[in-house]
Amino acid sequence: METEREEASSAIGYGLTLAKAAGAHLTVQSASWRLSGDDAWLGDFYHEGVAVIDRRLDALARSIAARSAGDAVQAGVVCTTEAPSLPYPDIVNRLAAQARLHDLTILDIGPRTYDLDREMVEKALFHSGRPVIAVPPGHAAFSARRIVVAWDGSAQAARATNDALPFLRAAEAVEIVSIGDEAEIHVEVPGAEFAPHLARHGVNVSVNDLPKGESVAATLRAQASLFRAEMVVMGAYRHSRLREWFLGGATRSLLAQSPVPLFLAH
């Protein structure tokens, strides 16, 4: 299990409490974005001043790592901390490489740093082959008693749901939500046909077919609130990232605004 840390992060608290509940090992990556080096956008920045900023960012990252290690000791969680100081592209690439060595990566999402958050999530999903939990602000403690599974019949949704089986089996209630017009729901996204698979794995599951409404993402957000869900499981980027960029998409919209943590796989 691995987490990535930013200011005002919920990911570390979420990861720590999840690791405690699961008896898992936790790795905290508290990386500092080094400004010095080959970053052309720095222009004529005063290099000594940049070096001072680098040292301060590095000290902050190390402080966060040390605090996380102390919190883990108090919680009885086995924890490894890392505090690399790297240019931003190297931080993202290192995260993806490290994610391959862990069961799960936990990352922050939020509107203030949305583009950077989305790049971290995309890199981890597309280059690690492992699932990601994307945690919005205000969710610093793990809880998944009620879970919504966003089912669209895709390979991505099937993979996400099966990767999430440990959470689904432990949940009190799981609702498969299929969203679309009547033809789409009954021809392309038969949630009722998928439910027996989860039931055979001991999941307390129900099915809810819903009209699309304003958008898939908006309907899913509303249903997650009505169901009092504490997690949404969904396949990420069923369409290409380029198409989502130009036309919008459920993954992109939910990464920008989600009421609960998202369990994502691609």
TrEMBL record:
InterPro entries: Universal_stress_UspA (IPR006015), UspA (IPR006016). Residues 145-264 form the UspA domain. It comes from the Bacteria. Pfam families: Usp (PF00582). Belongs to the universal stress protein A family. This is UspA domain-containing protein. It comes from Methylobacterium isbiliense.
